[in-house]
Specification:
Layout: E1 2-5, H1 13-23, E2 30-38, E3 43-48, H2 51-64, E4 70-72, H3 78-90, E5 96-98, H4 116-123, E6 129-130, H5 134-141, H6 148-160, E7 166-168, E8 177-182, E9 187-192, H7 203-216, H8 221-237
Parallel strand pairs: 1-2, 1-4, 4-5, 5-6
Antiparallel strand pairs: 2-3, 7-8, 8-9
Helix pairs in contact: 1-7, 2-3, 3-4, 5-6, 7-8
Length: 257
């Protein structure tokens, strides 16, 4: 199940999550936390869903269908983070992938500044894997990340906040696209060639959802991360040039000519 905001452009958010689940062979359920008016260029409006409706959606899915893994995306306020954390704890969710969505590809802020503390203290301790990009890792750890050593220190700090493991994604750095995994015991790098394209809308949502799909299929965490890395890389390689900004990756590249 994905717990996230919607993207009217279809490239990120719940829409990207459900496409990812379907492409990787798992059934997807969803809980909407916000409705965004969004395209490849900008987020023009956001409507947050009331917390009682968010809780009701989670309850409806988990009391009937259940979920082998859950992924969170856009949780824009402290109140939303609190209600999601409480519901996941109540239902005993064991496999949780947290994508700390803070800024859209267009640059729009999707997480309020005062909600970062709630994300650290309420949601990260429940996480099997946290999947921040470099700016998100900087915000979570209140550090500046420039070097490889900085990335490692940030990964250690995030696991120190209670997460079982973290993948600090390297898309914002120079050179090959190298993501760093850390589980409190060992570091592991996942590297792919950098593809020269602007069509990267929804890559963060897709990566986290692919990790969740792998976990739902019974994979070990590192195998799920490897699956996600390959899936996102190929989705970018076969991406769409639509809209006037950052187009989406192709979630169904395996199935479409």
């Amino acid at each position: 199940m994905t717990i996230a905001g919607s993207d009217s452009g279809g490239g990120a958010g719940v829409q990207a999550d459900l496409k990812t689940f379907a492409a990787l062979g798992v059934y997807g359920a969803s809980t909407l936390t916000a409705i965004t008016a969004q395209n490849t260029v900008a987020v023009t409006a956001v409507h947050e869903i009331p917390t009682d409706i968010i809780t009701a959606q989670i309850d409806a899915v988990l009391t009937d269908i259940g979920a082998d893994a859950v992924k969170t995306g856009m949780l824009s306020s402290s109140d939303i983070i609190e209600c999601v954390a409480a519901a996941l704890t109540h239902h005993g969710v064991r496999q949780l992938v947290v994508d700390p969505v803070m800024i859209a590809k267009s640059g729009a802020t999707l997480l309020r500044e005062d909600a970062i503390g709630s994300l650290r203290t309420r949601l990260l301790p429940l996480a099997t894997v946290v999947t921040p990009n470099i700016p998100e890792a900087e915000a979570l750890t209140e550090t500046t990340i420039v070097s490889d050593a900085d990335v490692r220190r940030a990964a250690e700090a995030i696991v120190g906040m209670g997460a079982r493991s973290v993948v600090v994604k390297g898309g914002h750095r120079e050179g090959p696209a190298t993501d760093l995994f850390y589980d409190g015991a060992e570091f592991r790098e996942f590297t792919a060639p950098r593809i020269d394209t602007v069509n990267t809308h929804g890559t963060g949502c897709t990566f986290a959802s692919a990790v969740a799909a792998g976990l739902a299929l019974g994979m070990a965490v590192t195998d799920a991360v490897a699956l996600a890395k390959d899936y996102v890389t190929e989705g970018i390689r076969h991406s769409f040039s639509i809209g006037q900004g950052h187009g989406p990756l192709n979630h169904f590249y395996k199935f479409w000519e």
